[in-house]
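Q: Sequence in, structure out?
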Amino acid sequence: MIPFSILDLSPIAEGSNASASFRNTLDLAQHGERWGFQRYWLAEHHGMPGIASAATAVLLGHVAGGTSTMRVGAGGIMLPNHSPLVIAEQFGTLEALYPGRIDLGLGRAPGSDQVTARALRRNLESDSDAFPQDVLELQDYMSDTPRQRVLAVPGKGAKVPMWILGSSTFGAQLAAHLGLPFAFASHFAPSMMQQAIALYRSNFQPSAQLDKPYVMLGFNVFAADTDEEAHFRATSMQQAFVNLRTGNPGKLQPPRAGYLESLGVSERTMLDSVLSCTAIGAPDTVRQRLQEFIARTGADELMITSQIFDHEHRLRSYEITAEVRQSIQRSEAGFS
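A: Exactly. Output:
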């Protein structure tokens, strides 16, 4: 059975704050480690009232320090926001503190609007068009024999696996060309998923890091003890998507009974599209959706995200997901 991992945005729920989000993040990571999840990734977003993982490297240190075996990484660092040297130093530091456990996923989107992007970098000449060159520069800083005069200390020689993240064919082409693992954001932008996977696999060139293609796919799971409860819990994420796409991002809202029925046709269509890679339901329902998705895509790993308002219910969703994975694994091994 392929590995399952956790993607966390450290959601800030309505009525809560960043401190509580960080406590919940560490608690989820510790539970996830015990439940057998492969890795725990945090994503860089800025200026978002409902997402607390803006200082991604800092929060990764908090999670890595509170766990012991699970891999911890960025899913991802939005490289246009940063100097490659700074990222080399940050992740070189994390690798020195937690050797053999750190991942570095790299994205080319700013993870914010253009005003926020300007505030972050203050020089938009280094935009997404420079992303391939920035990746190469970062690789060089972290190599054993960098060609640049400036050294990343820590960073030089750090054995931090790099991933390319994407929601289009651009990332697939770059990951294939550089021989890096590819993580596709199918949990919120699934429209080009199959095309990107095919392009990546057919054009992959082996590298020192990776000898064959490796595809990780994002997948939403809202699991509960009944289908009805799961659909109710999922309305918090549905509200978040609608609010974001209509220009009103905010804190993660409590679930709302009848929320989908209250939406117009255009909003329902949008949700059906962006959340097509999603399982909502009791364990048997989740198992069926996961097995169908894995069979359809041939994914090497799934990155599970579960944006649920109440922390205890979010834990339960991931616990059910881990139990489902174990049941699939037993079935594949020939056990009931």
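Residues 4-230+278-332 form a domain with the TIM Barrel fold (CATH 3.20.20.30).
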